[in-house]
Automatic annotation (TrEMBL):
GO terms of molecular function: hydrolase activity, acting on carbon-nitrogen (but not peptide) bonds, in cyclic amides
One GO cellular component term noted in the UniProt record for this chain: cytosol
Protein name (record): Amidohydrolase family protein
Pfam families assigned: Amidohydro_3
Originating species: Govanella unica
Domain called Amidohydrolase: residue spans: 420-535
UniProt lineage: Bacteria, Pseudomonadati, Pseudomonadota, Alphaproteobacteria, Emcibacterales
InterPro entries: Amidohydro_3 (IPR013108), Metal-dep_hydrolase_composite (IPR011059), Metal_Hydrolase (IPR032466), Metallo-dep_Hydrolases_sf (IPR050378)
Length: 555
């Protein structure tokens, strides 16, 4: 099976047995000189700058692919392939893995194939859905069934969510679960893990997760341990108690005996300036003690965006059907005519209804920065809290005055972040890159992270700012999430791994989306392969749908 090479040492029987058990469909031999001989392939990528995902130095070489699997990596000779790609001048890397996204959640509501061009044009070949604790096993099965039926351009895995499980068992009640209810939640977590989920996620800032104590989460996270799953969380109070909330995530993982991931971690708000640097140090200390802690970060100086009017909380919030900007402004103008109604609106918006969720309660006025205000551009990048101070008035009045002055055409970020804190999180060696993105065809406020996160890291932060090397950027998008999420057959350019591959121009890859134009797609990606099939070829979508569900794997 193995071609003989003049002058080369004979191959040991042990190595021959290894090749046989590796079940490679094409015989290969890697020599000390770095030359690989292979018989045939479906696709041959020639002359690329290979960044293999491990974090080592890039090198020029070739990649042979057959039956959706990487057969050989290196300088390949004596091979025939049906398709040859000349990658000279391009970087060839593993396809990127997004560990925290909401983009595929739209699949149930869209017709036809799910091509996710916003991801493919960034090289994202695998996404993990169900973060923030939102999805119960029943909800996950519906999404996975829709994805399988319609076909997808990328692979998808999932978390089983604490909020979804708790709501399914207990509704939205504000109390500790009974022993029977806790057992019922354990059963649902187990059901999710049997489905193939990578672990348990929680969203402790949202209802009903916000009503739970850490001990409840620990007990559910223990269910994940026999499956070798992980715990991921949107922290409980990332603005008012940033460090404590992020470290609570780590503590839950430690107490449950499983790895913990700090979901889309960021130091938001004027009061948290500098605290990301402190958090990195604290996590470094835990890792040094042997605790497996990771995090994921999206590369923007603002968290979720929303029309300012959308954060107002009315008494009938749960039953509202029309969330359009026009309806919001009609409602606000009517409310402002009644002093009692204004007082109630202020209380609900700032404190939630009966202690429930509200954005002002969660993030505060000093986290709200204006990112789009066409009628008053002089107010762009202003914080609501600082504007209120300048005007010498209550922040809620500033908020309503801004809405009236702009007719509701005003978008804010719900968590402004200072650059040094963002840079500290991006550089942390244990931090993966994520998007926290939403599908761009929705009718709600979008964030540029949905269309630009991975391209922005490669172009802006690695190439232009030189925050870290290209190979480190790729590691954060490939082998680090693959290992963290137990997707061991992906994330590296290595013989035997699945051929999820991104080929891009390192000089031009960049995000093009902004807070004002969040739907603009990234540029610079030339080819993308998913499971060995082109989904992007010469910069054009192929409409192929080779993606499939990827379950957690044993190492």
């Amino acid at each position: 099976m193995i071609e003989r090479v003049s002058g080369a040492e004979s191959v040991s029987r042990k190595f021959r047995r290894y090749l046989k058990t590796a079940c490679l469909s094409t015989a290969i031999l890697t020599l000390g000189c770095g030359v690989v001989l292979a018989k045939d392939a479906d696709i041959l990528i020639r002359n690329g700058l290979i960044v293999d995902g491990n974090g080592g130095q890039p090198y020029k070489g070739d990649i042979a692919i057959k039956d959706g699997v990487i057969q050989a990596v290196g300088k390949i000779k004596n091979i025939k392939a049906r398709t040859v790609v000349d990658a000279k001048g391009y970087v060839v890397s593993p396809g990127f893995i997004d560990p925290h996204t909401h983009i595929p959640e739209a699949i149930e509501h869209l017709d036809g194939k799910f091509l996710s061009e916003q991801d493919i044009r960034q090289g994202v070949t695998t996404v993990i859905i169900g973060p923030d604790g939102f999805k119960s096993p029943e909800e996950l099965r519906a999404i996975l069934a829709a994805a399988k039926a319609k076909g997808t351009s990328q692979n998808y895995g999932c978390y089983v969510g604490h909020n979804g499980v708790r709501k399914a068992v207990m509704g939205n009640v504000q109390r500790t679960p009974s022993a029977q209810e806790l057992d019922a939640m354990r059963a649902q977590v187990r059901e999710g893990m049997d489905l193939g989920c990578v672990g348990l996620s929680s969203g402790l800032m949202y209802e009903p997760g916000m009503f739970s104590e850490p001990g409840e989460i620990v007990e559910l996270a223990k269910v994940v341990k026999p499956y070798d799953g992980i715990y991921d969380s949107h922290s409980r109070n990332p603005v008012k108690h940033f460090l404590q909330s992020e470290l609570e995530t780590a503590e839950i993982g430690i107490k449950a005996g499983i790895p913990a991931n700090l979901g889309h971690v960021k130091a938001v708000g004027l009061g948290n300036e500098g605290k990301a640097i402190e958090l990195v140090g604290r996590v470094d200390e835990l890792i040094a003690k042997g605790y497996p802690i990771t995090g994921d970060v999206y590369p923007y100086d603002g968290a979720a965006t929303t029309p300012l009017a959308a954060i107002l909380v009315y008494p009938d919030q749960a039953s509202r059907k029309d969330w359009s900007p026009e309806a919001a402004m009609t409602r606000l103008r009517a409310t402002l005519k009644d002093a009692k109604a204004v007082a109630q609106l202020k209380d609900h918006s700032e404190n939630g209804i009966n202690g429930g969720f509200s954005w002002i309660k969660a993030v505060g006025y000093d986290s709200m920065r204006i990112v789009d205000i066409p009628s008053h551009p002089e107010l762009l990048d202003k914080y609501i809290s600082l504007l209120a101070q300048e005007r010498g008035e209550d922040p809620f009045k500033t908020l309503t005055d801004l809405l009236l002055a702009t007719d509701g055409k005003l978008t804010i970020t719900l968590g402004a972040i200072k650059d040094p804190d963002l840079h500290a999180m991006l550089k942390a060696p244990w931090a993966m890159i994520s998007s926290d993105g939403s599908h761009i065809h929705g009718n709600y406020a979008l964030h540029p992270r949905s269309t630009g996160s991975f391209a922005r890291v490669l172009g802006h932060y690695s190439r232009d700012l030189k925050l870290f090397s290209l190979e480190e950027a790729v590691r954060k998008m490939t082998s680090l999430p693959a290992d963290t999420l137990r997707l061991y057959d992906r994330g590296r350019l290595q013989a035997g791994k699945v051929a999820d591959i991104a080929i891009f121009d390192p000089a031009t890859i960049i995000d093009k989306s902004t807070y004002m134009e969040p739907r603009t797609l990234a540029v610079g990606m030339n080819h993308v392969l998913v499971n060995g099939e082109f989904v992007l070829r010469n910069g054009k979508m192929t409409e192929a749908v080779p993606g499939h569900f990827v379950a957690r794997q044993k190492k």
